[in-house]
User: Which sequence fits this backbone?
């Protein structure tokens, strides 16, 4: 999972394969959504890809990635609160590490998101942001980003 | 998010990059699943791609995309009803626009779906259809489709 | 949905397009998560792709795919149990085949997962495994795998 620079063509043109970047994210609460937009835009620019897709992958089992409203922070508050209502921390679980709820929330939200790239920029809807979803923080996490021409 | 024609090779062969198409979808209810199969098949054909993937992306924060049974409309009725049972419209939410539930449902279902293309056709299971999921309609919506050879 | 060998370059180099493989999975219970890691690693190796993405697709409407903890089997037990708590088998559903709950669970978890490939291997987090999610077994199922360079 090492971060890796794209192989750029000698003329400085876009890389065609192999662009994989690791981002570092520090969560501050047990459950929290953290906006990734700026880091992802940087990765897309670094990749040199003008048209294609940007895959975001979370290599953890108690965290996830989602796309949702970035304008009003109340929305992410509501997402976290409702998931906790549906999957409470202290139900009767088989997994004995105190974070069974975090694993279940991760399964519901999902470990990957696929975004589009056009003219070197992420294609996001007017209100959309991309969020790392922490369900068992606070801790330092990794997010992997792959940008592919296509 | 402008719709864009694929760059076709001079010989009329398949485009390799840059096929991104915007679809328009009109929902008629607050919550509703709308079948996209025919529009997606059209987009795949238009792309010229014979083998690859078809990424479907919803650039909204109160809508989503899913793959599920297309034969019996009772299935989508059940999906909508159960999501509303789990995330009711009138719980106590921080987001004050009356559609916090729509955002949460969108986070649960997800903004993107990845489908396969083989011999110029979508690869769907016998009972599968692809559905735009409206959670805050009725209104006019956009769905983005990218078809990539690979 | 026929399994297909990648078109390998004459020099034995990596295939660029068209690698699609069908896996067969036998579930033993109505609801169960089945680890796919070994089958996916085989598919990646067979594809010849060194750097890229591995898309996993479930062509069924009462099954899904997820990425979660593979070390402690209690985690998948908890995921299955909580989903059944949230979407019970015997609620009042419109779909009359006795598996409306299975369709809804499939919509929540999702039909596809996107993984990364680096140096010819899947990039998974320390605790991650990829799971086929059976929600209406036992039966024989198909899982489709596409590996793309990029």
Assistant:
């Amino acid at each position: 999972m090492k971060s890796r620079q794209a192989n750029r063509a000698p003329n400085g043109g876009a890389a065609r394969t192999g662009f994989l970047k690791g981002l570092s994210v520090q969560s501050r609460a047990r459950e929290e959504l953290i906006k990734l937009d700026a880091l992802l835009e940087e990765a897309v620019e670094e990749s040199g890809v003008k048209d294609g897709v940007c895959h975001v992958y979370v290599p953890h089992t108690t965290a996830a990635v989602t796309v949702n409203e970035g304008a009003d922070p109340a929305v992410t508050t509501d997402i976290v609160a409702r998931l906790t209502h549906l999957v409470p921390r202290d139900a009767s679980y088989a997994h004995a590490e105190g974070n069974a709820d975090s694993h279940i929330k991760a399964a519901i939200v999902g470990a990957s998101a696929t975004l589009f790239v056009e003219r070197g920029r992420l294609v996001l809807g007017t209100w959309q942001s991309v969020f790392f979803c922490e369900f068992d923080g606070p801790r330092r996490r990794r997010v992997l980003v792959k940008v592919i021409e296509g």
In short: Chain B touches chain C at residues 51-53, 66-69, 72, 74-75, 77-79, 81-83, 86, 108-110, 113-116, 118, 123-128, 148-150 (CB under 8 Å). Residues 1-15 of chain B have pLDDT under 50 and may be disordered.
